[in-house]
Amino acid sequence: MICILTAGCIDYGYFGLSDEANILSFDVEGQLSNVIIVGEKDAVGEVNITVPTLYDMESLTITKAACTQLAQFTTDPYALTDFSQPIELTLIAEDTTVRKKWRITVTSSTAPVQLPFSDMKQWTVAKDDNKKEITYTEGGVLKYACFPGNGVALSPWQSSAQANASSLSGINTMTTTPQPTVSTAEYARIETIHVTTGQATYADAQVVTGALFTGKFLFELSFAPKIGTGEPRKMLNAGVPFAGRPLSAVVKVRYRPGSVMMDGSGTPITESNAGGRPLRDSCEIYVLLHNRYAEKDRYIRVAAAHWRTGAPVGNMEDDAAGFEEITIPFVYGEPDAAVLAEKPYAKIGGQRGELTFYRFPVDKASRPVTEVYDTEGIPASHITVLFSSSAYGDFFWGAVNPTGALRGSTLDIKDFRLTY
Fold it and tell me: How far apart are CA 99 and CA 97, in angstroms?
């Protein structure tokens, strides 16, 4: 069993022996919420989990227990079932110099399930897979990328900040930012931009789309997508654990499409459907509920809420009253013909094959996952939320502005919540 636990804790992006002993995920089947508080190295870490009131607290199932690189639990967490009282676990760091205690507390609740930091009013400095702060130099000034979060509890929200900040991409700017500032954040701004660096031009990736999503972004060139091949999500391990059954998603938005639609070569798109490319840009919001435990190699789509528009929404000049609240209903199971006629992008795979998913085993070689509709009414185990300023940004298609304060198609969002 020690070998199994060790493999589950591997992080292949390390050099040397690590002195960290942190829990990165600790999931209970059917959990409503899960908050991990790492704290300082010598402090007791905390995992606070909520499950429905009907669950037997003495007979729970651990579905995932992952820790920092090559650290080891002194007790097999998968053997734990009784959480009627808080449980203490100990993690030993890879270099064995640190033995950190962790307190696992499970409580029951009837409160509706929401995602942490989904109001977009609290942001923290973003860190990469190796816990390094993501920085970039823009206009000769060193800046920090940010994610929604508080710097203590692990946040479900990420963006492609690591790729945007990398010298390999040549982007050196963020497409997802807190506005108006990090310390006074009221909303998230998500933008599509035109990048003309040598790297972007060589890779036919001059159109860069902003996105904010639940899950994890893994910036590794070994499984980077090839431009135009239909592999848009090979760096995105989408989704986080979730067990609710919401009726709709509600969010406040405003949107302005860019003026010139382009492909990744920087060529204006002047005809709809030429090579499958749309003439006009659209923003996109979707929330997908999956069950990832019922079948080994397939994601079962329990429900989905989709919204896409190419029309302007709200007033970009009025931060106080310029947002419009939209409600997006969930469709459970397979959508009927009427839904697909109105929203063809809501089908499995999307409208042009833009909606694909990849699984990331411990060796980090991302592999495509088959997505199928739920036919039996099973519960969800994960939720994937995505906000994008250009619906086909994964194919490097999107609208930009030659001039103006907005750099291209711009989607502002805040106060996201689920209704039950």
Answer: 7
What is the CB-side half-sphere exposure of residue 97 using CA atoms within 13 A? 6
- Before 241, cis peptide (omega within 30)? no
Domain boundaries, the chain: 2-109, 123-419
3-state DSSP assignment of residue 203:
coil
Question: Is 402 a residue whose pLDDT tops 50?
Answer: yes
pLDDT in tens, 137-160: 988 899 999 999 988 777 899 999
The reply to whether CATH 2.60.40.2340 applies to domain 2-109 is yes
Question: Taking all residues of the chain, what is their mean pLDDT, rounded to a whole number?
Answer: 88
Instruction: Give the C-alpha separation, 182 to 76, whole Å.
Output: 40
Q: Which residues of 234-267 are buried (b: 16+ CB within 10 A; e: fewer)?
A: bbbbbbbbbbbbbeebebbbbbbbbeebbbbebe
Q: DSSP assignment of 50-91, as one string? A: EEETTS-TTS--EEEEEESTT-EESS-GGG----SS-EEEEE
Widest Cα–Cα separation across the chain:
64
pTM of the predicted structure, to 2 decimals:
0.78
CATH number, span 123-419:
2.60.120.890
Contact 226, 307 (CB under 8 A): no
355 or 391: whose pLDDT is higher?
391
